[in-house]
Structures are given as C-alpha cells and as structure tokens.
Amino acid sequence: MAKKPSIPKGTRDFSPAEMVRRNYIFDTIKGVFCKYGYMPLETPAMENLDTLLGKYGDEGDKLLFKILNSGDYLKKADETLLANKDSNRLTGQISEKGLRYDLTVPFARFVVQHQGELTFPFKRYQIQPVWRADRPQKGRYREFFQCDVDVVGSNSLLNEVELIQIVDEVFRKLGIRVVIKLNNRKVLAGIAEIIGEATRLTDITVAIDKLEKIGLEKVNAELAQKGLSAEAIDKLQPILSLSGSNSQKLEQLKEILAGSETGQKGIDEISEVLDVLKELNLATDVELDLTLARGLNYYTGAIFEVKALDVEIGSITGGGRYDDLTGIFGLKDVSGVGISFGADRIYDVMNQLDLYPPEVTSATQLMFVNFGAVEARYCLRLAGELRQKGLRVEVFPDNAKLKKQMNYAHKKNIGFVALVGEEEMNKGIVTLKDMNSGEQRSVKPEEIAEIIR
RNA sequence: GUGAUUGUAGCUCAGCUGGUUAGAGCGCCAGAUUGUGGCUCUGGAGGUCGCCGGUUCGAAUCCGGUCUUUCACCCCA
C-alpha cells in the first residue's frame, strides 16, 4: 500500500455526518446572537506577527504558529544568528505572519483599525477556527473553533446581563443543562489587597482557579511555592471556603473586603448584575463563584464560565469584561465584554447526551432508481418537480444493479425509493417503496410529496 | 517545553521467551437472489507489520532515532 495520507497533529476532518451536527450547533448559536443585535465578523486566518506577539504572555508566544516568509526567506537572515542556530531571534527575520491564536485580539485590531467606520456600542459575533501549537490531549486540539460574541464601547452592566441571557437561551435551545458561574476581577483584586499581596494578583488567580480540580491543600501549596506569605494564605482561607446563597456570599464578602475600594466596586457590580437577572426569569442558575478566576490577564471586571451539569468536561463557555483591550493598539478607553462558546466541547456534550433533533441528521428523503438513460431523464423531471415542493430528492446517477442502488439508499438512510421503469412510465405512475417498513405501492407522481411529508 | 503511551488489512484488534506462507471480527467486492436494501449462506480481493537505521543465520517481535496516537504536567477552549 502507498503511504497513507494524513493530517497534521491535533487537526481533524469533519465528515458530512459530523458537519450537519456541527452546523446545527453553529446555526442555533448564530440565531440567538442575531436576535440580540450582534452582527457577523470574519478576520483573516493569518495576522501580522506583531499584532499577535506579546498579547498572550510568554507562554502564548510560544504557542503561536508562525508562517515562513515567501521566497528565499533565509537570504535576509542574519549570518550570525543562523550560525548560532538562534531560533528565537531568527524567527523575526524569516517570519512576519502568524496564524491567529484567538478571536479577541484580531477583533481588537479590527476595532482600532476601523474605529472611524464603526458605530458604538459595536456588537459582533465571530465563528472561526484558531490555532495553537500546543501539544494535543483530551478535548484540546491545535486547530479548533471559537465562537465569540462581544460588545465594545459600552461600560453598562446591561451588556453583562445580555450575555448571560444569550448563554441561557443558547443552551436552552440546544437542550444542555448548565450552570453559569460568575465572578469579578475587582473582587479578586480586592482580596489580594486585603491579604496584603496586591502585586501577586496573577499568581493568586491562577492558583485558586484550580481549586475545584486539585483541592484546597494543593492550592495552598502552590501559593506558598509562589512566594506568598503564610499569613496571606491564612487570610485567604475563609474566602475560599465561602458558602451559601449568592446574597449570603455577598454579605460576607462585603465585610471581608470593607477595606478595599476596588473590592467594593466589584461587589457592587456583581450585585447589580444579579439584581437585574432576578427579574428576567432565566432557566439557568447563575452562581457567584469566588474561585472562578480564568487565566486571561486582560479581564478587569466580570468574568463568567459555563459548566455542563450532565457531563464532566470542564467549562464549555467563558468570558469576561476587559477595560483596555484596544489600548495595546493605541485606542484608549474602549471597554468591552464578551464570551466565547467552546464549539468543540459543546459538540462533545451534544454527542454524549444525544441531543440532536431527528430532522438534523436526515438528509435525502427520496431517491429515484436509475433504470437507464430514458428512464433517468424522466425521473430527473419528476425529481425537479418534487424539489420545487421543497423535498430533498436525488436521482441515482448510474444505471447500476438495482441491488447496489437499493443498498446506497439504505446506507444513506434515505426514507423512500422510487422505482420508475418502462412499465411505470407507460402507466404514468411510480412504484414508491418505504425503506423503513419495506412496503411498496403504485402511486401517481403528484401524490408523492403528500405521502413522504 | 517536561514525563509517559500507542502504531499490524479500509476499521477494531490478536500475534507467547525472535523461527516456514502474519491471523480474526467488521466492512468491501462477487455469487446464491437477471426490477428490490436490511437477515442468512458461499467465495474473493486487500498487509514491504508507521518510517529510517542497528543487533542476529533469521526481526511484526530486541535496541536507537524519527514521525504519529493517547494521557498527565505547564498553560488553556
């Protein structure tokens, strides 16, 4: 056998059967975005490297896929760097483009670049693949789809509320039971302040974000290892173990963070969002979770995450507010808030729970058997008429053995097969076979649509 | 980037401490059944055992490298 063709590590093909399911998810999500006034946006798969570099931290820079310059790209490279095999510094000379790492930074770039043409608040959604040179593992790929919805140019907390409504509606439509976890970076900053480690906010958030996964002991160990004082870790304990209803948690927090202005601001924001939500009768529970931190450093206010209740898979949607995302591209004071639906994980959840409505997976409704050139032309006309009535119809292209044609219909899960040979043509009828029951009968062409529907 | 793990027919996998011609199930093709799929039976095609090198009289089997799969860590969706 010849060498088997393959695809790069961490990438996937999507078969027709998978695509109809994925499209169902995307269409459902798009439909909801649309209802709230968000418009579609697409940006190029590749961006200039300087747009991408430095936006995701050192770790992120390493995970960027870089694109080699065209032509004789080594010609311009520095001899010394080449001789020393200094890949890091050489990269800048032989590559100036990279594949996008997420949709948020290209979006920020777009907003800055087109600020004159946009009307604010600007609401867009974007569903496109992104690439990361990570090592693939369970549920993690090198090419995967993000499904972002953001609004920039408005500080109102109503945007946070709206995004939560969208989450609620999307998952209700898809039939996935979820819980929305809510927190606020200002609260986390307040906590860091109160325990006397204001400058260690990132280390603290990264560590407590793991609480659910690795447990309190290990989180404390990690905090100690990062250099937090025992006293600070001690002060943190009651906060990590806060329990009760949202309002009970908020009450306790208010006391704990009494000394922190930022912290108070965060509490106010959370309270307001929860307050407005109360009147909206969401199907989904919104839970204040102080251990929700999310790694991304650019979040400054609300942060949220959505977890499936019936499947162990981690978060399937997440996001937050970022006050200065466009600042890195020179546009100050444009606040935004957005969330990203994890399409691949949602797909996994949908599959595991088998939540697709039956019409999603059905394709062709009726197939005409091909008995030869003359019969096929006759069938083509009938098929055309049925398609006009909105039926999904195909005519088998080859005059193959009937067994093969029937088998094709069977494998493709086609509901009905029409047999039209010389005899049927002369009589002006078709023999219609129901592939599920095996029954067949002679009917007039104009009756077909009625029977199949 | 670190540490493991996997690779044998289209697919899922057997193949012992190295020893003739590498097997099974499913799928595929053909026939039983010339205008009838699914079920059954019969027959057939299909593999330089991921790739490169080494050890050996002899390698799917042992060793090294490389790619790939899966998993954990880091980080993240």
Secondary structure topology:
Elements: H1 16-35, E1 39-40, E2 46-48, H2 49-52, H3 57-62, E3 66-68, H4 79-84, H5 87-94, E4 95-99, H6 104-113, E5 122-131, E6 143-152, H7 158-174, E7 178-184, H8 185-194, H9 201-208, H10 211-214, H11 216-225, H12 230-240, H13 246-256, H14 261-278, E8 285-288, E9 302-308, E10 315-322, E11 336-342, H15 343-353, H16 358-361, E12 366-368, H17 373-388, E13 393-395, H18 402-411, E14 416-419, H19 422-427, E15 430-434, E16 440-443, H20 448-452
Parallel strand pairs: 1-5, 7-8, 12-13, 12-14
Antiparallel strand pairs: 2-4, 3-4, 5-6, 6-11, 7-9, 9-10, 10-11, 14-15, 15-16
Helix pairs in contact: 1-7, 7-14, 8-14, 9-11, 13-14
The structure holds one RNA strand of 77 nucleotides.
Strand order of the largest sheet: 1-5-6-11-10-9-7-8
| Straight-line N-to-C gap | 47 Å
Tell me about the largest β-sheet.
8 strands, mixed
Alpha-beta classification: alpha+beta
Q: Any idea how many domains? A: 2
Mean pLDDT: 89
Using the alpha-carbon principal axes, give the shape. globular
| Uncertain ranges | none
Number of helices: 20
Helix percent reads 40-55%
Radius of gyration: 29 Å
How many β-strands, per DSSP? 16
The assigned CATH architecture of the largest domain is 2-Layer Sandwich
At the fourth CATH level, what is the homologous superfamily of the largest domain? Bira Bifunctional Protein, Domain 2
Which CATH C-level class of the largest domain is it?
Alpha Beta
Written overview of the protein:
With 453 residues, the chain is α+β, with helices and mostly antiparallel strands. It has 20 helices and 16 strands. It has helices at 16-35, 49-52, 57-62, 79-84, 87-94, 104-113, 158-174, 185-194, 201-208, 211-214, 216-225, 230-240, 246-256, 261-278, 343-353, 358-361, 373-388, 402-411, 422-427, 448-452; strands at residues 39-40, 46-48, 66-68, 95-99, 122-131, 143-152, 178-184, 285-288, 302-308, 315-322, 336-342, 366-368, 393-395, 416-419, 430-434, 440-443. The strands form 3 sheets. It has an 8-stranded mixed β-sheet. Strands 13-12-14-15-16 form a 5-stranded mixed β-sheet, covered by helices on one side. Strand 15 (430-434) and strand 16 form a beta hairpin. The longest helix has 20 residues, at 16-35. The two termini are 47 Å apart. The protein binds one RNA strand of 77 nucleotides through helix 3, strand 6, strand 10, strand 11 and helix 15.
